[in-house]
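Budget justification aside, the reviewers requested a transparent look at the raw inputs and outputs of the sequence design task funded under Objective 1. We therefore reproduce one unedited record. The lines immediately below are the structure tokens for a 177-residue chain.
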């Protein structure tokens, strides 16, 4: 027990420091960010994502605000024989561009790392789950095509967030859903 407590404290300290180092978009404007985006690339250490990433296709997410002003993300993912729809609701954290979501099983932190509001956005999501904690980076684009420069910028961020290139999926275009 005495050995476990220092390890736990060290783990929590490392997790806290890793989160603190995630850069965020300065002067984030949620109104400009709202709209329909294509998820064109994702890197994650989530075990479910890693199992499915080679069969995934580009999806669409619509970002809007609830009547209370909190962000809502509606996803449509093309799967083998159907379109899977789901919605994530977040709450503002008090810092523009940083949002939190909570469910019975996990807590999520979503940060807008960088966006130009008209071509691309890079999001960082941390899932604080007791069974499968994970980190993800997502590259969102207004168009399904992503420029090589933006994709390179995204790929350079992957190792800085503790992820590796083998955790990356550049999602092929999809006309489905």
């Amino acid at each position: 027990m005495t050995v476990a407590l220092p390890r736990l404290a060290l783990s929590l300290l490392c997790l806290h420091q890793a989160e603190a180092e995630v850069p965020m978009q300065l002067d984030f404007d949620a109104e400009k960010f709202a709209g329909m985006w294509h998820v064109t690339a994702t890197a994650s250490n989530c075990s479910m994502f890693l199992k499915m990433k080679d069969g995934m296709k580009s999806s669409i997410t619509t970002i809007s605000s609830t009547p209370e002003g909190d962000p809502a993300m509606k996803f449509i993912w093309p799967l083998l024989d159907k379109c899977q729809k789901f919605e994530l609701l977040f709450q503002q954290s008090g810092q523009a561009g940083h949002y939190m979501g909570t469910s019975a099983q996990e807590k999520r932190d979503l940060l807008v790392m960088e966006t130009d509001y008209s071509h691309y956005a890079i999001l960082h999501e941390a899932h604080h789950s007791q069974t499968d904690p994970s980190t993800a980076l997502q590259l969102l684009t207004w168009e399904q095509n992503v420029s090589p420069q933006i994709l390179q910028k995204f790929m350079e961020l992957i190792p800085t967030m503790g992820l590796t290139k083998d955790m990356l999926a550049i999602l092929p275009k999809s006309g489905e859903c």
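Residues 39 and 140 are 5 Å apart (CA to CA). The chain is about 20% helix and 40% strand. Computational costs for records of this kind are itemized in the attached budget.
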